[in-house]
Design brief:
The chain is mainly alpha-helical. Helix 5 (about 85-95) packs antiparallel against helix 6. It folds into three domains: about 10-60, Orthogonal Bundle (Arc Repressor Mutant, subunit A), CATH 1.10.10; about 65-105; about 110-165. It starts with 10 loop residues before the first helix and ends with a helix. Helices cover about 70% and strands about 0% of the residues.
Length: about 170
């Protein structure tokens, strides 16, 4: 695809440079469309070249906010679990629209996730500490990950029962 007949001199080179920069930015991990646009903007890439790079990446399937949101949620749930509310905030901050965020979060169950986190965090603590210390330390960990008070309480109860059976 060559430059349009009315393109200014150097426009094709700027488009190629924008596309190369965007591809390098995408190489380590998926990104949202807004993240790529912001990166190109911070690098001083012009509007026309940015629009070209974004549309080309979308066209070839390398830039897809729906896929990015699903990847982000899956990655977070496996490696650094967060509550749905916290995940939604992270995705929104990365420029993902509400529909894509909602679709990506459809399968996330805060209760189940909070219990899993409490069990993982509390395994060592349950053997060493009393219930009040367990609740304070594990509960604080859950709260910092965005889980609501009720969810934290239920997760602590479930984890304590599993880790310290009567």
């Amino acid at each position: 695809m060559g430059p349009p007949a009315t393109a200014r001199p150097g426009a094709e080179a700027e488009r190629r440079a924008a596309l190369d920069l965007a591809l390098r930015f995408l190489a380590p991990r998926p990104r949202s469309r807004a993240e790529v646009a912001d990166r190109l903007n911070r690098a001083g890439v012009g509007r026309e070249a940015t629009a070209f790079a974004l549309s080309r990446l979308v066209e070839v399937g390398l830039l897809d906010d729906d896929a990015f949101a699903r990847w982000w949620v899956d990655n977070r749930c496996r490696h650094r679990p967060r509550a749905r509310r916290a995940l939604a905030h992270e995705l929104t901050a990365r420029g993902v629209d509400r529909d894509a965020v909602g679709a990506a979060l459809a399968g996330v169950d805060d209760e189940e996730l909070a219990v899993d986190v409490a069990l993982a965090r509390g395994r060592r603590l349950a053997a060493e500490e009393e219930r009040a210390a367990f609740d304070r330390r594990v509960g604080g960990h859950l709260a910092r990950r965005g889980f609501s008070g009720g969810t934290v309480r239920r997760a602590l109860d479930a984890a304590w029962r599993r880790l310290r059976p009567a």
